[in-house]
Design goal:
- The chain has 203 residues and is mainly α.
- Helices cover 74% and strands 0% of the residues.
- The chain contains eight helices and no strands.
- The longest helix is centred in the middle third of the chain and has 25 residues, at 86-110.
- The protein starts with a helix and ends in a 13-residue tail after the last helix.
């Protein structure tokens, strides 16, 4: 198993847990929680692959279905700790968007697209799963609030290319880019840094 596949699987597990955790907090049944977790985990990558005109990744192997099932089992076994801790969702979500941003950039690169498309695909892969998760549980998606969310993905994708152009090793580039997203997300919440809201025009 290569490192990017390991990152992909780790991101799938983290994002699936973030979705299942919120579904459990809203008293979804087991099947409903699984669906939310699966859509959270594969939603961004599916849209990315459709936009790149390639077969969605999870349709080529059952790994992602199985990983989501393991995430569901994990939440079921440790539900008292996972569901009650508010920070759990945030941490797994931050890890998920960081890892998936790297996966998105590299999948787009492998398909032969230019830099600007690869950066956008990194942001799509990292953020769309969270959008679908929030819609499924009837919440306003984080990306549409003032939170630094998709912007963190874009920043991580740009850092990926900076590391790439500096000639850093592949693994170091992946780690630095993912950690940029994760730390940007965590620090923006901790220090209450947000984008300015677009206020309506008053008559």
């Amino acid at each position: 198993m290569d490192f990017i596949t390991l990152i992909d699987y780790a991101g799938t597990f983290a994002f699936a847990i973030s979705g299942i955790r919120l579904a459990a907090a809203k008293n979804f049944d087991v099947f409903g929680a699984y669906v939310v977790g699966f859509v959270t985990a594969v939603g961004g990558g599916t849209l990315r692959d459709m936009m790149l005109d390639i077969t969605p990744f999870w349709m080529e192997q059952p790994s992602y279905v199985i990983i989501t099932a393991i995430a569901l089992l994990f939440v079921a076994l440790f539900r008292k700790s996972v569901v009650k801790l508010n920070n759990t969702f945030f941490i797994f979500d931050a890890i998920g968007i960081g890892l998936f941003t790297v996966v998105g950039v590299e999948r787009s690169m492998a398909a032969g697209f230019p830099v600007w498309v690869n950066i956008i695909m990194g942001a799509v892969t990292g953020s769309v799963g969270g959008i679908l998760r929030d819609i499924f549980i009837n919440e306003v998606p984080l990306i549409f609030r003032k939170d630094i969310y998709a912007v963190a993905c874009v920043l991580g994708a740009v850092v990926y290319y900076i590391c790439y152009w500096l000639g850093l090793s592949h693994i170091v580039t992946q780690i630095v880019a993912a950690m940029t997203v994760i730390l940007t997300r965590i620090l923006s919440v901790y220090f209450k840094i947000s984008l300015p809201a677009l206020k309506p025009v008053e008559d």
